[in-house]
From TrEMBL:
InterPro entries named among the record's database cross-references: Glyco_trans_8 (IPR002495), Glycosyltrans_8_dom-fam (IPR050748), Nucleotide-diphossugar_trans (IPR029044)
This protein's name: Hexosyltransferase
Keyword Transmembrane helix: yes
Enzyme class: transferase
Coiled coil: none
Annotated membrane topology: Single-pass type II membrane protein
GO molecular function, one term: glycosyltransferase activity
Family, as annotated: Belongs to the glycosyltransferase 8 family.
Transmembrane residue ranges: none
Length: 329
């Protein structure tokens, strides 16, 4: 993966962006520059996981965020990795030398004993569960983040999404909500036939939401110890098999019906379709701010195989992978 990706251009703040300036040496503020930036009230925090399998998608996602935001110098990325940390940090630094970011080591043993096999083996990767531990991994001064999957691009300003108010319902998170989905599909007959379990959703308008795009209030998460709540459902799953779909159902069990809904334009998901049948998806009706290739098919895989779906052409301009015949050093 060394020198595999091109260097992205540098992006600068618009004139009206709030400045994150370094503190004066004689002030009482923390003089550690990294800490100062991270704890600044003006910072916009984005969290993603990183691994060698999806790094190409991650690089495109980062570029799309920076290219479309009005205040790129105020964006701070928080990358969670479980292996190849030095390599991944170096790869990000070389392609984005001006990027403000931190890398965190996720100890897979924290969650590996809680994971049950799902209908897709790719969903069983421990790193898929790292989003449940962000409140533990990130500094306490980071109070609100936007979590993004690696298989997406933004075509709008992420600051709009990050500014989603979470005061409604005193909510912990916000995400696009899909209330027309068949919610029973996400849980097994064992779950629905058990009155004490199915009552989980009593008095809640439980709607599906995709956990690949979320705005999370980390302060409320920590106060409510929501990591433990998710782990408790995972422990029950090990005993009773109440769902089939990896890391999503525990989030639904804890949060469905109690989130702040975000406009659907912020997660046009499902574009991955089905690689095995070559199924290509179209966009949902309405405006688009974020395109998400959730599902089996990833745009870089289809492009490399010369079998792209039409919408993969929208991802391709953000691909930083060097061509095999690149003359760049």
């Amino acid at each position: 993966m060394k020198d595999q990706f091109k260097e992205a251009p540098q992006f600068y703040n618009s004139p009206y962006c709030a400045s994150i300036t370094e503190p004066e040496p004689d002030t009482e503020q923390d003089t550690d520059t990294d800490t100062y930036y991270i704890c600044s009230e003006e910072a916009v925090h984005v969290a993603m996981t990183l691994d060698t399998t999806y790094i190409r998608g991650s690089m495109a996602a980062i570029l799309s965020v920076l290219q479309h935001t009005s205040c790129p110098e105020n964006i701070i990325f928080h990358f969670v990795c479980s292996s190849n940390i030095s390599l991944l940090r170096s790869t990000i630094s070389k392609s984005f030398p001006y990027l403000k970011f931190q890398v965190y080591n996720f100890d897979e043993s924290v969650v590996s004993g809680l994971i049950s096999s799902s209908i897709r083996s790719a969903l069983d990767c421990p790193l898929n569960y790292a989003r449940s531990y962000l409140a533990n991994l990130l500094p306490l001064c980071v109070r609100k983040i936007v979590y993004l999957d690696s298989d997406l691009i933004l075509v709008d300003d992420i600051i709009k999404l990050a500014s989603t108010p979470l005061t409604e319902k005193n909510a912990v998170l916000a995400a696009p909500e899909y209330c027309n989905a068949n919610f029973t599909y996400y849980f097994t007959p064992t779950f629905w036939s058990n009155p004490s379990l199915s009552l989980t959703f009593a008095n809640r308008k439980a709607c599906y939401f995709n956990t690949g795009v979320m705005v999370i209030d980390l302060e409320k998460w920590r106060e409510g110890d929501y990591t433990t709540k998710i782990e408790e459902w995972m422990e029950l799953q090990k005993r009773m098999r109440i769902y089939e779909l990896g890391s999503l159902p525990p989030f639904l069990l804890v949060f469905a019906g109690e989130i702040v809904p975000v406009d659907h334009r912020w997660n046009q998901h499902g574009l991955g379709g089905d690689n095995f049948r070559g199924l290509c998806r179209e966009l949902h009706p309405g405006p688009v701010s974020l395109l998400h290739w959730s599902g089996k098919g990833k745009p870089w895989v289809r492009l490399d195989a010369n079998r792209p779906c039409p919408l993969d052409a929208l991802w391709e301009p953000y691909d930083l992978l060097k061509t095999p015949f690149s003359l760049e050093s």
